[in-house]
Task: structure prediction
Amino acid sequence: MQLASPDPDGLSSFVTFLLSLIQLLASNWKVFLLSSFLILSVTVFTRRAKKSKESSSLLIKGSPPHQTPLNDSDIPPVYHRPCSQISDRSTSKSSSQAQKDLIVKIAQKQDHRVKQPYDAFLVLDVEATCEEGAGFEWPNEIIEWPVCLMRWKDKSDQGKACQLEIKVLKMFARFLASHGLIDPKSGRPIQRFCWCSDGPFDVRDFVVKQCFISKAPMPLWLKGNVLDVRRVVSVWAVASSNPDTTTKPSARSHIRSLNIPQQLQALGLPGFQGRLHSGIDDTRNIARVMTELARRGVRLEPKTSINPNRRWNWMGKPGEVLEHTLMFQ
Result:
């Protein structure tokens, strides 16, 4: 069997055609791009038409029985109804309402209320006389006694709460009795309340010294442990910065002490309101810190012990200040 030899005249004419075509396209590249686009478009259109024809023929041969539309209860969680332009407005309203409902549910789950053992808190920040460089060894005398009374607004039957309200006290024993905190005759506490201060100094140092100088026993409504707000915020700041740690700092562990402006900053509150070192302004800002701690679900209870019989070197007999000892302070 022999192969037919190619026709030299036909081959030369085909080569001549190709060369002329290449010269034409090279001289006009726009015509080349346009022709390529037209060829590609015709090819794609032909393939899609062929596929749609095949799919329609399959549906006609084996179409499923008629099904009723799905109800909301029949729709699985992963299914979402398609949205049309006609229902866009109503859908946006329903989605905004769903978002509001979701926010309410999240807020309910994020209830920070914890069981609080005390019914009320007395926030105190005294101002006292001082001597430059003497520190807390000096026989300070109290000159300001500002206090804020704080009670729970949302305490449940189980003792859980997280919202505190503030009232400023003026006349103490009488005011405490009128608010049902102490017995008006004996002065003994009726409700569970504790004193709170920025550090332990106000009651531990200033009150104990003043009672000695005034030759007055410490009132029953002043005795007991104190809630050191500075310590609570400092421990909370350390715990919140290291959420993975499960061990709580011990009472003797060294933690950076935060003053009132730093406490407000650590809790994300606005800056100090009023004049710093003004007794009533300091007290109100400590009360703001207490309110935020309660809102964040911090259990508020006193853990700083106070010794009403504490003595300093300058103390002589009750009410007597040994002046000669102050020269060496």
Notes: Strands lie at 114-115, 120-124, 127-128, 142-144, 147-152, 160-161, 164-169, 193-197, 226-228. The longest strand covers residues 147-152.
